[in-house]
Amino acid sequence: MTPETITVDYLIIGAGATGMAFADALLGESGHTMAVVDRHHAPGGHWTMSYPFVRLHGPSNVYGVHSRAMPSDSTGASLASRNEVLDYYDRIMRDVLVASGRVTYLPMHDIADVHAGRPAIARARSLVNGATTRIVVRKRVVDASYVNVTVPAMKRPGYDVEDGVPVVPVNQLVELGGAPERFTIIGAGKTGLDACLWLLNQGVDPDRIRWIAPRDAWLVNRSHEGAVSQFRELTSLHGHDSVGDAIAALEELGLVIRRDPAVTPSAFRCATVSSTELEQLRRIENVVRMGRVRRIDSAGVVLEAGTVATPPGTVYIDCSADGLTQKPPRPVFSDGAITVQTLLPCLVAPSAAVIAKLEALDLDDTTRNALAPPAPNPRAARDLLSFYGTRMERLHRWSGTPALFDWLCGSRLSAALFDLHEMADPDNRAAASAIAAHLDDVLKRDDVTV
Ligand SMILES: Cc1cc2nc3c(=O)[nH]c(=O)nc-3n(C[C@H](O)[C@H](O)[C@H](O)COP(=O)(O)OP(=O)(O)OC[C@H]3O[C@@H](n4cnc5c(N)ncnc54)[C@H](O)[C@@H]3O)c2cc1C
């Protein structure tokens, strides 16, 4: 059977937060046509598979797409639930993208292969009926799946489990029934934090919760974010010439917080909590810091640095997926292709929208790439410096290109860059650039592994 053929200017692979923000901004800034292809049945990427009680951990007013606000409370700063996020993306897909008449949406389709060229030819295969759609791409193939988020429901745990031992993915926490006597939470990332907070909010006594946390991580303090002009605050880091000192200063400023006052975190993965949530988390005292889990059997847990026994009646909740993978950076713009990556660490939505805006501007790819250097997501504590330094550097870089700066200042997504509008003042621009250079310098000079 001859496959159906469609011809578009852009093929966007992935309808997660990245693909949606890119498609929406390109639609608004150009007259081009697009096909958006995704394996899932609905737009929203990993949100379609996340645990039911997940919420945004950053405010709703900086998440989503450029053209429409995500429903929120009057402050704009509430944290949308999974259902709200999915409903939002569903409406954007139907009412904005498809309704424009310029976007073809193919859910439940896998991009099987792409032949580069002018035009490029891709094949999208239906995961339901197996039919293939041939997609002729006149301009670019946009990979909006490169960031590659993994949530626990997408993979098996990376450790062995003896048959019969109750280890369940976090998605099933709401379905356990029978009020287990004890819980062991495995993983100290955003998902592990969420699972602990959810149990505490359900009234589970903290003594019934054991938390396996391979590494303590610095947490972004949501209660502080946006409170004060960030680049002015960061200016005070000029006096701090080692990574450890600079991190101590960030803590002193209240930008980042630690879960346990007695433990210096060695990781940073952009997880964000409010001071109220932090207070709750500190109620859990049984925290196991013995590295990663290797095996769980009926006696207990075998970890990298030893073994802990498990009392009967314990249910293990697996929260160990690495939601924030680190991919090697590559040029965003290349011949016939765009690889969407974070330009601001951890902030996929504004990053993808900026990339779309750059594509719509009359620039060459060398200039576009100079304005869009990828910023890998953080892992170690020292990456806190590049997290804040990159934000300052991007403020400086983007405010020097009026066509981008003016658009970004008018975009709802720019709320993620707290001080953007202040960059119209050359002194402020210079201050942002200086702090970025200082933090970069500290990182280069001080290569201790914190
Ligand atoms: C629990 C959790 C909470 C988070 N909260 C926030 C937050 O509050 N604020 C924030 O800024 N960030 C947050 N993040 C960070 C997160 O990275 C982004 O929010 C974002 O959802 C990532 O979207 P994405 O489109 O890059 O990836 P994904 O959601 O993984 O989407 C990629 C899509 O590509 C599709 N795809 C891949 N390959 C193919 C193929 N060959 N053919 C067809 N389709 C394909 C997949 O089906 C998928 O739908 C959170 C992350 C997690 C895990």
Structure description:
- With 450 residues, the chain is α/β, with parallel strands linked by helices.
- It folds into three domains: 4-149 and 325-377, FAD/NAD(P)-binding domain (3-Layer(bba) Sandwich); 152-216 and 258-318, FAD/NAD(P)-binding domain, CATH 3.50.50; 225-257 and 378-450, no CATH class.
- The protein is built from eleven helices and 20 strands.
- The strands form four sheets. Strands 1, 2, 3, 4, 5, 6, 19 and 20 form an eight-stranded mixed β-sheet that branches. It has a five-stranded parallel β-sheet with strand order 8-18-9-10-14, covered by helices on one side. A four-stranded mixed β-sheet has the order 7-15-16-17, with no helix packed on it.
- Flavin-adenine dinucleotide is lined by residues 13-19, 37-40, 45-46, 50, 54, 56-58, 63, 110-111, 144-145, 147, 149, 151, 190-191, 323, 347-349.
